[in-house]
UniProtKB/TrEMBL annotation:
It comes from Halomonas saccharevitans. Residues 1-23 form the signal peptide. Pfam families: LpoB. Gene3D superfamilies: ABC-type transport auxiliary lipoprotein component. It comes from the Bacteria. Transmembrane segments: none annotated. PROSITE patterns: PROKAR_LIPOPROTEIN. InterPro entries: LpoB. This is Penicillin-binding protein activator LpoB. The lineage of its organism: Bacteria, Pseudomonadati, Pseudomonadota, Gammaproteobacteria, Oceanospirillales. Keywords: Signal.
């Protein structure tokens, strides 16, 4: 009898806890009024990327005086924060916005850590293979070398402000002309958050 009572009690408790759980729902990123954490989230990435691209476009650094579009390669974006950030998420947003501007194309055939898309070189390994029609195999000298390189760093600084903590994030980017090695544009976007000392930023 006690076993049955215990079992019923556990089932009842489980149903009670399930009934109290918050229902899963969709979030509209454009109108998200949800809680703000001390760490970086998708809203911060969105804002920082948009600010950076707008500044880059307004500066004229990606306007090719010879017409056409510059070829851009993304170099290394260093994460110097206490969080495990996927810097590719930020970089992808920047690349998408630059591509949409119509002034830049990005290459995936080269990168700081090798080709982003290995197929650019793999398909060229089909040359002289008897299994493939050589008329469809990519010729030598068709890959486009990049003109510009985008590199940067994400920094974090924690400060005490009265009884609260302030967490400052800085996205610093440099656009380099690969012919001359000169920086054509540099920008910094800031995300500053202030909250309880009990909040964590990692």
């Amino acid at each position: 009898m006690s076993r049955l009572f215990t079992l019923l009690l556990l089932v009842g408790l489980s149903l009670t806890l399930t009934g109290c759980a918050t229902a899963t729902r969709y979030v509209d990123p454009a109108n998200d009024q949800g809680a703000v954490s001390m760490g970086l989230d998708y809203r911060d990435f969105e804002r920082a990327a948009t600010e950076s691209v707008d500044s880059m476009l307004e500066s004229g650094a990606v306007d090719n005086p010879n017409g056409g579009r510059y070829v851009l390669v993304v170099s290394r974006i260093v994460n110097d924060t206490m969080q495990r950030l996927d810097t590719d998420q930020l970089v992808k947003k920047i690349r998408v916005d630059l591509l949409r501007s119509g002034r830049v194309v990005t290459t995936t055939a080269v990168g700081a850590d090798g080709a982003e898309d290995q197929m650019s070189m793999r398909v060229r390994e089909l040359r002289n293979s008897e299994e493939f029609d050589q008329r469809g195999v990519e010729r030598k000298g068709t890959l486009q070398a990049p003109d510009l390189s985008l590199s940067g760093k994400i920094l974090q600084r924690n400060r005490k402000v009265g009884r609260e903590q302030q967490v400052e994030y800085y996205l610093q980017l440099s656009l380099t002309d690969l012919t001359t090695g000169l920086a054509l544009w540099e920008g910094e976007s800031q995300v500053i958050k202030r909250g309880s000392n009990a909040s964590v930023s990692w």
